[in-house]
Design goal:
The chain is an alpha+beta fold. Helix content is 43%, strand content 19%. 27% of the residues are buried.
């Protein structure tokens, strides 16, 4: 079974649903998804398999504690898909190398602009993660492992000369049209 097939398999989506519902079963979106669970998971699987899956608009609301702020969150179905991506792409990396530290995952468009991300960043779609690399040797091993063993859209081993900070940017398209672009970039 390919990585793409793992992501849209019923078993993977069911396990992802179970993770997404932890601590949220009482919320309306989780309850609605659960009432039609088989239909919802089969629909998600078909949409991903046929490359017609798209993310829903963000749920936007305000909270006032401890201060007023606007919160943007993914829809429940998108959380299920993201759990499946993590289980089938990021988790194999963790199993191979131990604890990994993700320094950037999903970004709202406004946060993406503030950190200097491009408008088309896959971070704004929940399709990318930046992983901290502790040193050059481990970074190259992680880079090679992903490049040779996992499906991905873009894999970039990045380093800043001034600070010697290193990280891996890895993305995975939810429509399955991964380009397998890999390169090393020193800034």
């Amino acid at each position: 079974m390919t990585d793409f097939e793992k992501i849209h398999s019923f078993e993977s989506l069911y396990n992802a649903y179970r993770k997404a519902r932890q601590g949220k079963r009482w919320k309306g979106a989780a309850a609605k998804f659960e009432v039609n669970l088989l239909e919802a998971l089969n629909l998600l699987s078909a949409q991903i398999r046929t490359k017609r899956y798209t993310m829903s608009p963000y749920n936007t609301f305000e909270v006032y504690e401890p201060k007023r702020r606007v919160v943007m969150s993914n829809s429940y179905k998108d959380k299920v898909v993201q759990h499946s991506l993590c289980d089938n792409v990021l988790e194999p990396l963790r199993r191979r190398f131990g604890r990994i530290r993700i320094t950037s995952g999903y970004r709202s468009p406004s946060v993406n602009a503030k950190v200097g991300g491009v408008a088309t960043s896959q971070h704004t779609l929940g399709e990318a993660a930046d992983i901290n690399v502790p040193n050059a040797e481990v970074g190259m091993k992680m880079y090679d492992y992903i490049r040779c063993n996992l499906d991905f859209d873009q894999l970039i081993y990045e380093q800043r000369r001034k600070t010697a900070t290193r990280w891996l940017h890895v993305s995975y398209r939810t429509d399955g049209n991964n380009r397998r672009q890999a390169w090393i970039e020193v800034k």
